[in-house]
Write a structure and sequence with these properties.
Blueprint (H helix, E strand, L loop, with lengths): L1 H42 L13 H10 L3 E4 L6 E3 L4 E4 H4 L4 H16 L10 H17 L4 H10 L12 H30 L7
Parallel strand pairs: 1-3
Antiparallel strand pairs: 2-3
The structure holds zinc ion.
Length: 204
């Protein structure tokens, strides 16, 4: 009898612990989703006013991207991707980068959608540079520290990459892509500074 009671105690303890673990996982998931929402809100207005006067073609693009879902994927691998309809950010990426770096990554994926890129597993340098330019402009327009974000992006893993090991040729290709992206980032910052100095609006 005592053995049965003891076994039941072990079973209940295990059930409670499992339930706590699930609850903790759920809480973490909700907190991550809230963090994603907050970062996205700092980047783009989620509640565009259709009666805003002087709506330009440029502004209508903002309204489009405001409707794109930014979704959390439970995956330890740090990655960001898009299928053209939504942006997917993994929990692994969220654990790895801060809010500013994440804003640039989200903006980059929004850039692929807004610029009608189909982002494959092997994105071309040109498409990456276009999405990066769009992303830096989006941060600048939102009043975020785009230069700081670019510096952070150099220190973190870029989107669309897996966390696996690379062959030498793959590592070289990746290093080449990152060097080209860094060069492009510097050029975009110079472009934005020139536009700001001349008082020209930053159009996407
Ligand atoms: Zn990309």
């Amino acid at each position: 009898m005592q053995a049965v009671a003891s076994r039941l105690t072990v079973l209940f303890t295990a059930m409670i612990l499992t339930s706590c673990a699930n609850q903790t996982g759920l809480d973490t998931h909700i907190l991550m989703m809230q963090r994603l929402d907050n970062i996205t809100a700092s980047l783009i207005s989620r509640t565009p006013n259709p009666r805003t006067p002087n709506q330009s073609k440029d502004l209508s693009k903002d309204i489009d991207i405001a409707n794109i879902p930014i979704l959390l994927k439970q995956d330890r691998k740090p990655n960001a991707s898009t299928d053209g309809r939504a942006v997917y950010i993994t929990s692994g990426l969220m654990n790895r980068v801060n809010d500013l770096a994440l804003a640039l990554i989200i903006a980059h994926e929004l850039g692929h959608i807004s610029l009608n890129h189909y982002c494959s597993q092997n994105p071309t340098i040109q498409l990456e540079q276009e999405a990066d330019r769009y992303a830096v402009f989006l941060l600048a327009r939102a009043g975020l520290d785009y230069e700081g974000a670019v510096k952070l992006s150099a220190a973190t893993q870029a989107p669309h990459t897996s966390n696996g090991s690379y062959s030498t040729s793959e590592a070289n290709r990746k290093a080449n892509l990152e060097a080209k992206r860094a060069e492009n980032f510097r050029a975009v910052i110079v472009e934005i500074e020139a536009l700001k100095t001349s008082g020209t609006p930053l159009k996407l």
